[in-house]
Give the backbone structure.
Amino acid sequence: MTFQVYDTTLRDGAQREGLSYSVVDKLAVARLLDEFGVGFIEGGWPGAVPKDTEFFRRARTELDLRHAVLVAFGATRRAGLDVRADPQVRGLLDAETPAVALVAKADIRHVERALRTTGPENLAMIRDSVAHLVAEGRRVFVDGEHFFDGYRHDPAYGAAVVETALAAGAERFVLCDTNGGMLPSMVTAAIADLTARTGIAPELFGMHAQNDTACAVANTIAAVEAGVRHVQGTANGYGERPGNADIFAVVANLQLKLGLPVLPDGCLEQMVRVSHAIAEIANIAPDTHQAYAGAAAFAHKAGLHASAIKVDPLLYNHVDPSVVGNDMRILVTEMAGRASVELKSRELGLDLAGHPEALSKVTSRVKELEAGGWSFEAADASFELLVRSELPDAAPPRPFALESYRVLVEHREDGAVVSEATVKIRVRGERVIATAEGNGPVNALDEALRVGLSRHYPELRDFELADYKVRILEGSHGTGAVTRVLLETADGTGRDWTTVGVHPNVVEASWHALVDALTYGLDRARVAGGAAA
């Protein structure tokens, strides 16, 4: 039986707090999910949500899916109402999707208390709705809401719900851990008992897991190991409360750990790109520590790790990062040994292997600086400048020499607060004094430095301060604390770099990071200009 990967990012995932997709967003996410190779994309609830109704209308002409089948989501008919007269069932048909997902109550307590109907009527609602949609030519999936909790309470009724749905023509019955309270052993036990009780092969079941116990991915894998051949999840685990099973982690585990080819060829390596693109559309920062897709998923900090990785990267990577579109990264910190520094330098295109003395100096310098609060793991540009300063003929030319700088903050009568900075520097043998205002001390200092350098370095006009982070270092207190500054700079071509500075004075810490940022950027522009020539 064909394995089915079913994505519900656009419906269940959209229930995440603070997340709101426009119709254009939903169309864009659907295209990305199709590129990732999922078999089904649940687009929303037509008829009940106007935005979703509009999505399905536009999808008919604007979505050209290569791998996925679009699915409309809804509920079984209302109690006591003829299925042909139920407007929300009609809305499912009007969506004109090849497949439909129906949510049905699988817990007798919910049937009686939430739906306020009887167990037999709930079974009739399921039977009528599935049979009607199948007769209209739709593939039907039934999501058994609260299945696991309901099955633990009344297994006979839970089994009857499953049997009714499949007998009426449902393609799969999806076992839903709606409250997210299950553990893998509970999932496995329930599926084994359900199979024995009904005689239904587990291949006809699906798994939908919420993440309230942080076990959604594990529960999904446990279900597959118990014979289930349909899995549901959302991109990056989005969903209400703690979220849903992360479809990326689920698929990677199935394909790479269990050897199940659940995606079309060439799709798995799109994971990181698709994960981050969907995060951008959702306006949610990508989770750097997300399994498989996170920037830190294959990042190594300990010197012991780096020593082994230098021999064979797979000694400390559970898979080759490239198979999911990721990269291995070596982080340089106070924990770094010579191997970490060497590998990180190689990653930046610098060879320290042939310069053992320089390697020793850089390693010692990194440990010394990190002990004082510097952090190079997020500041590759500053680290590269440090390495190059120890390599023969590799140190970038310093664009200027500082004589002094001064920063003033003025609170004016009208309430405006303005910063003014003056820098005195020597540039190519010339003494330059430049003054500029800014909306803060660092901005004013940046502007003054640019004014002083612009005649000699016109490339600076393309540089932009993209991000500025200040952190009070642990163990420091109050206004006298040591601060660490991270500066992210961009040059307008899509390239950016990060530098670091540390000092008890936040302006001086910012100055260190700013000087590194301009030095690094100007040197890159010089090298690029030379290559172009």
